């Protein structure tokens, strides 16, 4: 379906109002594989924008490289698909220039924690008001299934034909360790709750990370005998523990489980506003 | 009234940038460009601008591009190793057509090299450092005054053509102190934009001069920017026709404006039989040598490209017509000398003076080559 | 206002997530496209819409007239 959007004024197609309003429908269906979880996460972002009545003209979506990065093209806002790993650095410039803009980063596990790991931890340290949503599929999907920093130990990728000897990152914990003032984890199975968590992340003043476990049946699933998209999502359902419940559980019982929900939400001075105050102070003659 | 002040080259670069409208700087400390970050950190908040010290060189250029897409004139500065690290995102700014000024205060390389020693070893990297075919504008100052004036020119060209511009300084000029006159008023160019755009207006639809007019982020034109080859809406494409047309347009928007972009200085070239080709800091030694040679009765002149890229081939070919011998002096193992050879042809005599040991080329060394039979 | 389930078969990639997680098991995938089972009792809960990666199934609200 090719649509010239400058001539479309009314939703008369088989498209939900949410998608019609927030996506560049002329570019749908998207390029992601059948059963890929990324589309679910992107829809949750649109739902969060709708819930918040976010001003799209002042909303910027920044992405890096990889499967996740293609999200930028689909969401109808100011969108920029940058270089591999650097989305957070680009987003930092946008937020600094315009602290009044909502700046949302959509990234992947490799993009955010391998090639872009330095930018993730430093943005967390500064507490700059970005919302970073990680489409975490535990694999490099765009390049065909190489192991990533979140591929579990002993699992397989095309570059780990004998099993992965690396230990994985927990991206939410990594960000918290670096000072992130908001961190949450969710999964694509938890889509009904996901928009609400993303909304909390966007509303949070300061650096937010939402580590969303996606599903990649095409590469990660196939390489590791995880079954179909449905099987992978079922695994998420059966192995997720709400953060409230996890608090009272011993560590051994949490081994291999996904603790979902808001892991941290605390207030601290936001960076771009702090710099604006510095400018005011300097211009006001305070040295 | 214009005022005269004593300034370092790096400092003059910042003052020029501020006069041109720079209101954002992102950088990472590296010798010998660090003063550019230090002065920016001090001066930007005074004029309502913003400074950020990023976690690395790559983040610095990425951050500066981010500020620029939201409409703020931005700059980053670095030196050799940092310039290597910035190359990927420099190409991004070329393709995405985002105005940006990148300063490279060249130092001796390769690798960490001689961090505090002068060099002009990055001139070919300036042109070809980032992968793929792309246009590049690079400008080299040879005095503190030019650090100020040409920094303004870098911003103006970057805005006018929506392309990154390289300010190719070198350690000699960056750390030189001279008195300069700060003018009361300078000419400022702002990027082509659109007011009250339709949200779906194709951002990359070029005007007749091949330069797209697009609103900055936040003004209602909700377009996509990408480092993938893209259609006029900014959406990625694999269409070979669109891809070819895009790269061709990027090259042509600079090629077609060669006369506006290329500047040279010709000193005593009218009757010259011997010419010294040089640029940046090396031009100072060359000028001295040419003056001494003239006093000795040798018909000698100096040709200095101020714009390094695009290469001043039209001016060079014309200026070298009556010249019997060209001395190319540059602080490297021989980079622009090959461009000179390409332009003047295989018959013309070229003598090369290069330095890769961190010392400077002296007027005496150039004079000796001028006097050589 | 009334609600109805809409399927956009052009966009459906047949992954089966909607069918597997439908609380009333009202959906099935046939020839790589989702469809409603005959006589199934859809409660219009919208779980399929939220989990569809391809925006191919949703609950439409319509004015009654």
Brief account:
The complex is a heterotrimer of chains A (287), B (373) and C (65). By secondary structure, chain A is α/β, with parallel strands linked by helices.
Structure report:
Chain A is an alpha/beta fold and 287 residues long. Chain A has a single domain (14-283), classed as Rossmann fold, CATH 3.40.50.970. Helices cover 38% and strands 17% of the residues of chain A. Chain A has 13 helices and 10 strands. Chain A has helices spanning 17-22, 38-52, 71-74, 87-97, 109-113, 117-126, 171-177, 191-203, 217-223, 229-239, 243-246, 251-254, 271-283; strands spanning 59-63, 78-81, 102-108, 130-136, 139-140, 146-147, 182-187, 208-213, 240-242, 258-265. In chain A, helix 2 crosses helix 8. Chain A is globular, with a radius of gyration of 19 Å. The termini of chain A are far apart. With 373 residues, chain B is an alpha/beta fold. Chain B folds into 2 domains: 3-182, 3-Layer(aba) Sandwich (Rossmann fold), CATH 3.40.50.970; 266-371, Rossmann fold (3-Layer(aba) Sandwich), CATH 3.40.50.920. Helix content of chain B is 37%, strand content 22%. Chain B has helices at residues 9-20, 34-43, 57-69, 80-96, 123-128, 144-161, 171-174, 240-255, 258-261, 282-295, 313-319, 336-344, 363-371; strands at residues 3-8, 24-27, 50-53, 74-78, 100-108, 114-118, 137-139, 164-170, 177-182, 224-226, 264-267, 274-277, 300-305, 307-309, 325-330, 349-354. In chain B, strands 2, 3, 4, 5, 6, 7, 8 and 14 form an 8-stranded mixed sheet that branches. In chain B, strands 11-13-12-15-16 form a 5-stranded mixed sheet, with helices on both faces. In chain B, helix 1 (9-20) crosses helix 2 (34-43) and helix 1 (9-20) runs parallel beside helix 6 (144-161). In chain B, 56% of the residues are buried. The model of chain B has no long low-confidence stretch (mean pLDDT 97). By secondary structure, chain C is α+β, with helices and mostly antiparallel strands. Chain C has a single domain (2-62), classed as Alpha-Beta Plaits (2-Layer Sandwich), CATH 3.30.70. In chain C, the strands form 2 sheets. A two-stranded antiparallel sheet of chain C has the order 1-4. Chain C has a two-stranded antiparallel ribbon with strand order 2-3. The mean pLDDT of chain C is 94. Chains in contact: A-B, A-C. Chain A binds chain B through residues 5-6, 24, 27, 56-58, 60, 62, 70, 72-73, 76-83, 86, 89-98, 101, 118-119, 122, 275, 278-279, 282-283, and chain B through 24, 26, 45-46, 48-50, 52, 54-56, 58-60, 62-72, 74, 88-89, 92, 198-201, 217-220, 222-228, 235-236.
């Amino acid at each position: 379906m090719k649509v010239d959007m400058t001539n479309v004024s009314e939703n008369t197609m088989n498209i939900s109002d949410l998608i019609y309003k927030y996506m560049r429908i002329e570019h749908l269906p998207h390029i992601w594989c059948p059963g890929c979880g990324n589309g679910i996460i992107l829809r949750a972002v649109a739902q969060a924008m709708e819930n918040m009545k976010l001003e799209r003209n002042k909303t910027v979506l920044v992405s890096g490289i990889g499967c996740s990065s293609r999200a930028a093209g689909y969401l109808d806002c100011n969108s920029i698909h940058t270089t591999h790993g650097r989305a957070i650095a680009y987003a930092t410039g946008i937020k600094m220039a315009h602290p009044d803009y909502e700046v949302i980063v959509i990234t992947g596990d490799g993009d955010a924690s391998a090639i872009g790991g330095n930018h993730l931890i430093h943005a967390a340290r500064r507490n700059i008001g970005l919302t970073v949503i990680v489409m975490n599929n535990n694999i490099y999907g765009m390049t065909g299934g190489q192991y990533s920093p979140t591929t579990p130990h002993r699992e397989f990728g095309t570059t780990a034909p004998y099993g992965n000897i690396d230990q994985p990152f927990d991206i939410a914990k990594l960000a918290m360790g670096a000072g992130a003032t908001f961190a949450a984890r969710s999964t694509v199975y938890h889509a009904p709750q996901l928009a609400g968590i993303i909304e909390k992340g966007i509303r949070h003043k300061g650096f937010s990370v939402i580590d969303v476990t996606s599903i990649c049946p095409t590469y990660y699933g196939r390489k590791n005998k995880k079954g179909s998209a449905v099987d992978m999502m079922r695994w998420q359902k059966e192995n997720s523990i709400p953060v409230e419940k996890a608090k009272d559980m011993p560590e051994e019982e949490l081994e291999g489980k996904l603790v979902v929900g808001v892991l941290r939400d605390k207030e601290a001075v936001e960076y771009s506003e702090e710099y604006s105050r510095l400018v005011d102070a300097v211009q006001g003659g305070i040295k | 009234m214009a005022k005269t002040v004593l300034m370092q080259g790096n400092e003059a670069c910042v003052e020029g940038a501020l006069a041109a409208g720079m209101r954002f700087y992102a950088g990472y400390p590296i010798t010998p460009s660090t003063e550019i970050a230090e002065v920016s950190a001090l001066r930007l908040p005074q004029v309502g601008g913003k400074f950020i010290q990023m976690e690395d060189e790559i983040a610095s250029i990425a951050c500066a591009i981010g500020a620029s897409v939201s409409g703020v004139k931005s700059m980053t500065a670095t030196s050799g190793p940092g310039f290597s690290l910035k190359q990927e995102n420099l190409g991004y700014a070329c393709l995405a057509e985002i105005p940006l000024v990148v300063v490279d205060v060249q130092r001796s390389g390769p690798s960490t090299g001689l961090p505090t020693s002068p060099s002009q070893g990055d001139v070919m990297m300036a042109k070809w450092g980032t992968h793929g075919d792309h246009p590049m504008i690079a400008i080299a100052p040879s005095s503190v005054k030019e650090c100020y004036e040409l920094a303004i020119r870098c911003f103006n060209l970057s805005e006018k053509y929506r392309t990154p511009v390289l300010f190719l300084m070198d350690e000699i000029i960056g750390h030189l102190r001279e008195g300069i006159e700060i003018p009361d008023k300078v000419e400022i160019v702002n990027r082509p934009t659109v007011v009250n755009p339709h949200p779906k207006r194709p951002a990359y639809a070029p005007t007749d001069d091949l330069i797209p007019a697009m609103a900055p982020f936040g003004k209602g034109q909700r377009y996509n920017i990408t480092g993938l080859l893209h259609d006029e809406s900014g959406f990625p494409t694999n269409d070979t026709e669109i891809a070819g047309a895009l790269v061709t347009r990027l090259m042509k928007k600079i090629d077609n404006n060669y006369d506006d972009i290329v500047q040279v200085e010709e000193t005593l070239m009218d009757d010259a039989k011997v010419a010294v080709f040089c640029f940046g800091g090396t031009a100072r030694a060359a000028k001295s040598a040419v003056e001494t040679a003239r006093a000795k009765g040798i018909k000698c002149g100096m040709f200095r490209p101020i714009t390094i890229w695009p290469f001043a081939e039209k001016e060079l070919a014309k200026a070298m017509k009556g010249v019997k011998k060209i001395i190319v002096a540059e602080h490297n193992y021989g980079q622009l000398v090959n461009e000179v050879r390409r332009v003047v042809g295989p018959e013309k005599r070229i003598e090369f003076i290069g330095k890769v040991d961190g010392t400077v080329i002296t007027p005496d060394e150039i004079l000796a080559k001028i006097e050589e039979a | 206002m009334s609600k109805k389930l809409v399927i956009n078969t052009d966009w459906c990639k047949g992954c089966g997530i909607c069918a597997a997680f439908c609380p009333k098991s009202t959906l099935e995938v046939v020839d790589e496209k989702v469809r409603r089972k005959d006589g199934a009792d859809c409660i219009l809960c919208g779980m399929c819409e939220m989990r569809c990666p391809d925006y191919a199934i949703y609950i439409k609200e319509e004015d009654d007239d």
